[in-house]
Amino acid sequence: xxxxxxYFLITTGFGISVQYGDNAARRISSLSSxxxxxxSVTGGNPLTGTVHLIKAAPPGGAxxxxxxxxxxxxxxxxxxxxxxxxxxxASFPIKTKTVxxxxxxxxxxxxxxxxxxxxxMTVETPATFSDNFANLDNWIVSNWTAPGGxxxxxxxxxxxxxxxxLKLTQDGTTTGSIGGEVQLKTLFGYGRYDYVMRASxxxxxxxxxxxxxxxxxxxxxxxxxxxxxxxDYNSTTEIDAPEIEGVRPxxxxxxxxxxTLESSYATAQIQNPEAGFxxxxxxxxxxxxxxxxxxxxxxxxxxxxxxxAAYPMINHWGTNDANFGGLATAGVTRYMYVKSFTFTAN
Length: 346
What we know:
Layout: H1 2-12, H2 22-28, E1 31-36, E2 40-42, E3 46-53, E4 62-68, E5 75-76, E6 80-83, E7 89-96, E8 103-110, E9 114-122, E10 128-131, E11 139-141, E12 151-152, E13 157-158, E14 164-168, E15 178-184, E16 191-201, E17 216-225, E18 235-245, E19 251-258, E20 261-269, E21 278-285, E22 288-293, E23 296-301, E24 311-318, E25 334-345
Parallel strand pairs: 2-9, 12-15
Antiparallel strand pairs: 1-3, 3-7, 4-6, 4-8, 5-7, 8-9, 10-25, 11-15, 13-14, 14-25, 15-24, 16-21, 16-25, 17-18, 17-24, 18-19, 19-20, 21-22, 22-23
């Protein structure tokens, strides 16, 4: 009797399933995570993704569906990947496209449960880069709060004189300064940085006669904020090279920061940087930053040197501090000029 019943169940298909249906398979296993062969990749280069199951895939395999956040994302992936029977993972190809700014790509997977993971696509860093400021196409012109009070406005950065000109005005209050700032759209890391600059003066033309006055900083620097979405002035990477104050115009100041902590501070002397152009350079390498004026080495730091690539930036910002930059000078317009910026990778 038992034998007959068993035979009946097999031949009629009732009671025993000889195929793993989709729902049954997911009760046996489900997607646990997604991983990538690297946390970041230069846009345009390939990457490998891997899906991981909680348990081994059933007979017939486990089909994990894949998706991007948006069809317009600069990335191409297959619509699904199959984990072979008995396996707990399977890999799939990721093709990335070139990007003009860092992009965080998120990939979603579903098999029994939905999981996601992200990697960063970075801008390809050229071996060399040079800009003579015929235009500002390579730069973001700042329109936000400045450090220490005041603000930056886009109208205060222009190339009307055949080079970069950053203007600064003040009304005599801490918050009444308006200056100019530009940030390169590309991150750069180790290498040599050269800025040909005339520090802040009252001259409205690159070759005119002007004097330095209290209440401003002329600065060229590399900067990567902790919060990449805005100017929080807490830096993962910062190399100030140099800063020149309105109240100490003959002193060139260098500061290196790593992970919001000031790592070093140094100074060098130069006569009347507001009166003409000089080449201000720094060479950033693993464990060391060297500072140069007109190709002569003036200082070296080896303490807590940052490692994360950062954005080259140039700014002319107002101060109202007797100890840094000087008290504000109301009603006097000042100008800072930069003929060129050049980066050469190590």
